[in-house]
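ok so for the tutorial part 2 we go from a plain amino acid sequence to predicted structure tokens. step 1 is just haveing the sequence, like this:
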Amino acid sequence: MSEQMNYGEDYKYIPMTSVSSGKGQEVRPDIYSFTIQVVNVCMIGEANNSTGWTLVDAGMPKSVNTIIKEAEKRFGPNARPNGIVLTHGHFDHVGAVIELVEHWDVPVYAHESEIPYLTGVKSYPDPDPTVEGGLLARMSPFFPNEPINLGSHVKPLPSDGTVPILKDWNWVHTPGHSPGHVSFFRESDGALVVGDAFVTVKQESLFKVLVQEQEISGPPRYLTTDWKQAWHSVKKLKDLKPTIAITGHGLPMQGKELTDSLEMLVNDFEQIAIPKYGRYVDDIEN
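step 2 — the prediction. this is what the tokens look like for a chain of 286 residues:
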């Protein structure tokens, strides 16, 4: 590939992990969730189909070899996806994307509002270490924040809600955590790949992340800048009536537990998700 791509100058390995790191889970015959340190990537496609699959998100910085190895373990030697789709562009979801694009020579898709953060145009707002939460929130100023540049290798998702490389799936705009955050939904079986619109671990707490204690939670607080939008995004996802949710952080949740947890999160979003204080916390009306 001739076009130069690059990460921001603050791109670096982040030394934190969880008990789930390196573990994968097949949640549907064609949906595989794999944890890299503290974040999940998702591989959509039937096992052993070396080219008919799609990668959702691209893990932590310096995780390229881990992702390629796991992909080849599931899909076969020299497995190559038809492309990469991104829920959003925060560092822990694009950490290996440049190396993966170079290795596989595949396109990347993201929401048009996220493109400036993926083409070197715009940095995300600074993380908020003052936000109510745990140690991980206080560590957030050390996380990479500068934009990466994928150049012409990243393309906007079609405005009609379809995903060019994911048949039978649609993208749902779920902003709040980032302006162009999207989730992916398959109506036929209610499968939902959430990204960080909501998560199933208290991501601000280093201890809870380490042990992967499961609980429904809003988007990670230290990187969420619009709580009113985040609340509406969770309502939108609940109304889809998903049967299983694969989140960017935490273990997959399904069935009645998911239904009841989403209902509780929507009804009690101010108490569960919105921090009592922080740089990006404003008065929010339902």
